Recover the amino acids of this structure.
């Protein structure tokens, strides 16, 4: 079970992520009760049913899925989880940045998958606020080391819209 860091603190994850098993389809998978993070395909296939049955809805976005496809639905989601299937796959950074900057999404943006402490500083800069660390990783160490990689950054970001040279003036 992944350890969850939310707003810089280790916490318990109350959400369940729906997984589509072999032989199931988005149209036939059983929808669990409670706080559920739904894959995009399930959301697209059963949107009306999910809205009528769930008060708190989460969405899971894979690296090859487009934020633009759900832009009109963002108000339905309490949490949007962005999957990092491999450490070297950086497409999730763009997804988080788009959610925060272009679509002004104010809910929780969660990094899931192959998430290591080395990435936390950069993930925070593009708009992630919750991190499900890869199994076996130490949340206490990640909090201590992951967010303080650098004392400041030159570039503008989601969390710091002014570049460093503008802040010095």
């Amino acid at each position: 079970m992944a350890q969850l860091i939310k707003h810089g603190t280790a916490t318990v994850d109350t959400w369940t992520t729906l997984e589509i098993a072999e032989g199931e389809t988005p149209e036939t998978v059983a929808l669990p009760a409670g706080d559920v993070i739904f894959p995009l395909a399930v959301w697209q296939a059963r949107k009306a049913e999910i809205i009528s049955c769930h008060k708190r809805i989460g969405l899971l976005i894979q690296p090859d899925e487009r934020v633009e496809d759900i832009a009109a639905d963002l108000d339905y989601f309490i949490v949007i989880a962005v999957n990092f299937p491999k450490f070297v796959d950086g497409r999730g950074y763009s997804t988080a940045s788009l959610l925060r900057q272009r679509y002004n999404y104010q809910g929780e943006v969660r990094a899931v998958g192959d998430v290591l402490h080395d990435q936390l500083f950069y993930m925070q800069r593009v708009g992630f606020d919750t991190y499900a660390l890869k199994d076996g990783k130490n949340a206490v160490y990640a909090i201590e080391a992951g967010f303080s990689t650098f004392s400041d950054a030159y570039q503008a970001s989601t969390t710091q819209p002014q570049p460093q040279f503008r802040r010095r003036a």
